[in-house]
Amino acid sequence: xxxxxxxxxxxxxxxxxxxxxxxxxxxxxxxxxxxxxxxxxxxxxxxxxxxxxxxxxxxxxxxxxxxxxxxxxxxxxxxxxxxxxxxxxxxxxxxxxxxxxxxxxxxxxxxxxxxxxxxxxxxxxxxxxxxxxxxxxxxxxxxxxxxxxxxxxxxxxxxxxxxxxxxxxxxxxxxxxxxxxxx
Length: 183
What we know:
Blueprint: E1 10-17, E2 22-30, E3 35-43, H1 67-94, E4 101-104, E5 115-123, H2 134-137, H3 139-149, E6 161-167, E7 172-176, E8 180-182
């Protein structure tokens, strides 16, 4: 940008178009926080430029990040990808799914401590409201949705989901997904 405040730190720019106005953003490397920060440097809503960043008028940014800041940005993105992969792996490992071993940790109807293999995982039946195409047709979508809402540790919001467990003795029991943990 043509401003000493952001010299050598602009990584990219973008324009956000809304119904009546456009807003202009720049991705800037912040040395203090050691991460990228997006700032809005202008808009058609205030044609003279954003008063916080350009008190003297609107200036378009120049992408001018130094090689060191670009390398720091790439390292930051790499760390973010690694952390996301770890969260997704934890999430997949802790989400009850067909074939996984689980233990009942709370509840009334199935004794606490019961262990077995999940043979069914899905949404509680909503009596009187059969989804279009039947329950089997939407089973894959529900399981994907359940995996998403269970959170990275598998202990998130599992409300409304149930698991079917086959114990080692061959008995089949059903309980709420919030009552089990993957072992």
